[in-house]
Write a structure and sequence with these properties.
- By secondary structure, the protein is an alpha/beta fold.
- The protein has a single domain (4-213), classed as Aldolase class I (TIM Barrel, Alpha-Beta Barrel).
- The chain has helices at residues 13-21, 41-48, 66-75, 89-99, 115-121, 175-182, 202-213; strands at residues 4-7, 26-30, 56-61, 80-83, 103-109, 127-132, 164-166, 186-189, 194-196, 199-200.
- It has an 8-stranded parallel sheet, with helices on one face. Strands 9-10 form a two-stranded antiparallel ribbon.
- Strand 2 (26-30), helix 2 and strand 3 (56-61) form a beta-alpha-beta unit.
- The longest helix is centred in the last third of the chain and has 12 residues, at 202-213.
- It is globular, with a radius of gyration of 16 Å.
Length: 215
């Protein structure tokens, strides 16, 4: 089955070029200031302008107020909004309506009980993104991009009402197993194509996209 790839946290032209050449379906631009992948608006605008038609430009926010999202969307051509914080369904629906963009809502998974949030978010978001929930004793954990995987069987076989994407600890080496176990048709990678936090490697991006193409 074809697997669509999202390269998230792109912050350099060579990484973006590798994603475009590999025909990624989505590229993610990070607007969470605490992330090592954070982009200033002028940098994000320059990168977003290089993305051709057919690739979705996703702006990633974490519990951002309306004014931050508005300022970002005014400056940067963004096709979709990704919410990677603790936004409840009401807030997700509000952002979707206010900014007239499809919304991806990240759901952090550690165990089966976390699926309740996914069911609650299905009516508010346009797409779900399943990521690993950091353990409580993890220091300096980010909302995403922690190079952590979760048990993919937790989400396998569920008839979700929305399209969904798998994230969390994915690499070219484990992608085949992740897709086979979870049934994912869309995958998201950030730390798995980096040589250090926030430092994307074009060769790793190409290898990841090639691995997805061979599934």
């Amino acid at each position: 089955m074809p697997v669509t790839v999202k390269i998230c946290g792109i912050n350099a032209p060579d990484a973006l070029e590798a994603a475009i050449e590999g025909d990624a379906g989505y590229v993610g631009l990070m607007f969470y200031p605490a992330s090592p992948r954070f982009l200033a608006l002028d940098e994000a605008a320059r990168l977003a302008a290089l993305v051709p038609d057919g690739i979705q430009r996703v702006g990633v926010f974490v519990d951002a107020p309306d004014e931050v999202i508005a300022r970002t969307l005014d400056a940067v051509p963004i096709d979709m909004v990704q919410l990677h914080g603790a936004e409840p369904p009401r807030r997700v629906a509000e952002i979707r309506s206010l900014f007239a963009r499809p919304v991806i809502k990240a759901i952090k998974i550690a165990g089966p009980d976390d699926l309740a949030e996914a069911r609650a978010q299905e009516t508010a978001a346009d797409m779900l993104l399943f990521d690993a929930k950091p353990p409580t004793d993890m220091t300096d954990a980010l909302p995403g991009g922690n190079a952590l995987a979760f048990d993919w069987q937790i989400i396998a076989g569920h008839p979700w009402a929305r399209p969904w994407m798998l994230s969390g600890g994915l690499t070219a080496a484990n992608l085949d197993q992740a897709v086979a176990t979870s049934g994912a048709a869309r995958v998201d990678v950030s730390s798995g194509v980096e040589t250090a936090p926030g430092r994307k490697d074009p060769a790793l991006i190409r290898a990841f996209i090639q691995a997805a193409a061979e599934i």
